[in-house]
Amino acid sequence: MLTVLVSLLVYSVNAHSQTVSFGPVFEAYLTQSIQPKVPGYAVGIVTLDGTYTISLGVREIDKPEAFDERTIFRLASISKTFTSAAVIALQKPSINFDSKLSSYLPGLVLSNPTYQTQLTLGHILSQSSGLIPHAYTNLIQAGVPYEDIIKKLQDVDFICEPGSCYSYQNVVYSLAGDALAQATNSTYEQLVEQKLFKALGMTSSSFGHTPFLEQKNRAAPHRWSKKHKRWQATTPKENYYQLSPSAGINTNLIDMIKWLEAQLGRHPEVLNDVHLQNLHAPQIKTSRKKSHYGRHSWSGVSNFGYALGWRTFDFSGEAGFVHHGGWVEGFRVEMVINRRLNIGMFFVTNSEPGLASDIVPVFIRMYLEHINKQVANNSL
306 by DSSP, 3-state: which? Predict the structure, then answer.
């Protein structure tokens, strides 16, 4: 019944009224459940023809500067969604999701020569390389240079043939950026800046540690102090900035609204419907545990998959949800869209609360309940 009601609503209820009425409903939840427990946060909600933004709290604890929609933060693993889109935005038939990685990175040596020749960009971007999960993520956290870690990949075992099992990666995912750089004779960062940031008007987005520190309106990362029982500001680390394709983007809420819009098909000159169908279609099955959907708030989730830089799932009978989260020391980010429902949401906080894992399922559940109430009211 839920699916039927939602489908009816998409065709019968004015989209702007959905946004205006639902935004404050979700904001009330955030104000009560999230705001008292974090230094600052920002949220953007996009529906058919409306946008609702929320930003509250401070950029740094014990300082007065507000966390607002222009505040720069780290995007963490949602950076991965730009890497898969860059393959399409490049518009070069010679490099696509079926391109062999070895064609662009002939110097790369992996433990199984046969599997290495089979490995494609699509395998890398769908987290189905077949290599042991999180290969050498520990070395990135320890600050070992990316170039040195790549040389160690020859010692990493395959757990399956490429394309036949899910295994989440950060270091290995970044090989896609190396391949794109070789294919374009430029840098991966230049490609994304030109083909995506500039094309979408994301004028505040950047890559790297230094550009982050150069921003006056930036959020400080915070870690929880067990000793003091409060959030404490910490120094931004450089380690994950080495992995531009996996976790290297800095941005703000204004720019992420544009990325939400692009994923909903509002910028077809950059990403059209066919592009988005390719990006969002699940390529490999995962599980609830591997998707990090274990908390009670995720009850109702099913049909788990990983697309090209995105997680996919159904929720309470509704299909088509596309999601990714991210964590890097002192920041948590979440993003979810559903093109059939024309809904998207982005959340960021400059801290690491466990409650951040509840944001997406609570948002979906509240939205579905809200619009079904509207359908019921309109039918009276």
Answer: strand
